[in-house]
Amino acid sequence: MKGACDTAIVVAHGFTGSADRPAVRRAAGVFAQYAAVITFSFRGHGKSGGRSTVGDREVLDLAAAVEWARSLGYERVVTVGFSMGGSVVLRHAATYRGSARGRTEAVAAVSAPARWYYRGTAPMRRVHWLITRPAGRLVGRFGFATRIHSEDWDPVPLSPVEAVPLIAPTPLLVVHGDRDPYFPVDHPRMLAAAGPAQLWLEPGMGHAENAAGEELLGRIAGWLTAARPAA
Known about the structure:
Strand order of the largest sheet: 2-1-3-4-5-6
Radius of gyration: 16 Å
Shape: globular
Number of strands: 6
Largest sheet: 6 strands, parallel
Low-confidence stretches: none
């Protein structure tokens, strides 16, 4: 749905999420007070076909959503991603920076990892079990409506922290909770230190779209609609 302004916010959900999940719908509702909003489900998630590659080929899904937003006539297309979606918006911004239709005008990564294969917390060890074990993938399919690809990455994609230096001059916002049970605060600090970025460390916040309150979502939307490249 096209709003009154010239900006569209494309929302990239987290792993095992989808466009139909209540937390994503709630975030989209807040963002819609500031700009037009486009939501979608990554491959293998919810009603979307295919299988999840847990952040690798999902960059292509986001690129399609961004290009679709431009086809609707929006002059500014910005992205916000949560957790896995945060890693995707970073890699997308780095990969499509020079593309006329695929580029974004601003990027916000919320609760994103800085590096791959992190197993330093109990929740992430459970995520790796879900991804790498046949029994885990069955739980993902039937418990979380997420079909997960069984093959390892080959090649290993560019990591989020490696992507950050390639994003400038596109404005970048890194948002992270200091109570995040999945990724401790060294992840956002590493991302922010890798290139020009604003860092918001949110007191008391947990992980991703489920933990983002309406006030924070409104601030993110305000930043995305106002952000412009440095002169």
